[in-house]
Specification:
Layout lengths: L2 E5 L2 E3 L5 E8 L2 E12 L6 E7 L2 E4 L7 E6 L4 E6 L8 E11 L5 E5 L3 E5 L2
Parallel strand pairs: 2-11
Antiparallel strand pairs: 1-3, 3-8, 4-5, 4-9, 5-6, 7-8, 9-10, 9-11
Length: 120
């Protein structure tokens, strides 16, 4: 059983900051990819940031404001969000692609989502 637990969402004013975390547990041999997605009301889910090995990538809308990082020892991925805008309001989801220990199979897993609201 692989579980992803997200935390760190909340209400923040424009220009403020939040830090999201996603803790992964389970019988995992390795985590190949970690990423953050978001989904606003009436919109499709979109990729915000991802990290694969030492390489990171970001959506154009968040470049220079968001930073994704990974703590390998604790199997945790973070999303530091600075200079937040109302357009960043969405439910944010953590996603990983992991190789399981018992089977060696690769699967993707989603966190439960955490609400981020940017408003005055």
């Amino acid at each position: 059983q692989v579980q992803l637990v997200e935390s760190g969402g909340g209400l923040v004013q424009p220009g403020g900051s939040l830090r999201l975390s996603c803790a992964v547990s389970g019988s995992i041999f390795s985590i190949n990819v970690m990423g953050w997605y978001r989904q606003a009301p009436g919109k499709q889910r979109e990729l915000v940031a991802s990290i694969t090995g030492g390489r990171t990538n970001y959506a154009d809308s968040v470049k220079g404001r968001f930073t994704i990082s990974r703590d390998n020892a604790q199997n945790t991925v973070y999303l530091q969000m600075n200079s937040l805008k109302p357009e960043d309001t969405a439910v944010y989801y953590c996603k990983i692609i992991a190789t399981l220990r018992m089977s060696g199979a690769r699967y993707f897993y989603w966190g439960q989502g955490t609400q981020v609201t940017v408003s005055s």
